[in-house]
Design a protein that fits this description.
The protein folds into 2 domains: 53 residues, Orthogonal Bundle (Arc Repressor Mutant, subunit A), CATH 1.10.10; 161 residues, Tetracycline Repressor, domain 2 (Orthogonal Bundle), CATH 1.10.357. 73% of the residues lie in helices and 0% in strands. The two termini are 32 Å apart. Pfam families: TetR_N.
């Protein structure tokens, strides 16, 4: 990464971190973009250059997560199915759930704050679904390219997404959506946060075992 690219990435991270801190303190709807810009010591135009919509300030990290998920599928070793690649990615011990499991109280505070913020904001919930849908579409397109089953769109001439790939991507991402909803419900209800990471792994394993009955042979490289 060159110096210019590094500086841009640092600015983007600074803006996102500043926004998360202000959102956590006062709630998403109460914070204006101009305040984020002032706190980060950049112009409002700079904020919008990096994050075209206010919701993007919160969900850029979710989209980064989606990109890493698709990359994990793309880089899976020979003999590994798509189901195994997604399962391994989603159920590994990392991120904020791993911090909770280690007894990090600050991680619990952050997770509760963000969960309440999203639960209280229709705009954020809609943006979350958009981010997940984008990851689902990217995964379906990648699987179509890999299997070579998509053909060509009759309308645009662009590569068409194979229906089987689209169904598989939606089934796999459905587990992700279900686990997100489970975590949010548990966190907002203050239910046994010390067990949350272990329970998510267990429920994820159950969900993928169910899918394996129909997807076990799909997408083996």
């Amino acid at each position: 990464m060159g110096l210019r690219e590094l500086k841009k990435e640092q600015t983007r991270t600074l803006i996102a971190d500043t926004a998360w801190r202000l959102f956590a303190d006062r709630g998403f709807d109460a914070v204006r973009v101009a305040e984020i810009a002032r706190e980060a010591r950049v112009s409002e135009a700079t904020v919008f250059n990096y994050f075209p919509r206010k919701e993007d300030l919160l969900y850029s990290r979710l989209e980064d997560f989606g990109e890493r998920l698709v990359a994990a599928v793309d880089s899976r070793p020979a003999g590994e199915s798509v189901l195994d690649a997604v399962r391994n990615f989603l159920t590994r011990s990392s991120g904020i759930l791993a911090q909770l499991e280690a007894g990090d109280h600050e991680a619990l505070v952050r997770l509760r704050t963000v969960s309440r913020m999203i639960a209280d904001s229709p705009a954020l919930r809609a943006r979350e679904q958009q981010a997940i849908a984008g990851t689902t579409a990217a995964l379906a397109a990648r699987l179509t390219a890999e299997t070579g089953d998509g053909g060509e769109s009759a309308d645009s001439g662009a590569p068409a997404v194979d229906i089987t790939a689209y169904v598989a991507a939606n089934a796999l991402m459905g587990v992700h959506r279900a686990l997100i909803d489970h975590v949010r419900r548990r966190v907002l209800a203050d239910e046994a946060p010390d067990r949350l990471a272990a329970d998510v792994r267990a429920y994820g394993a159950q969900a993928f075992a169910l899918l394996a009955q129909g997807l076990a042979e799909y997408g083996i490289r």
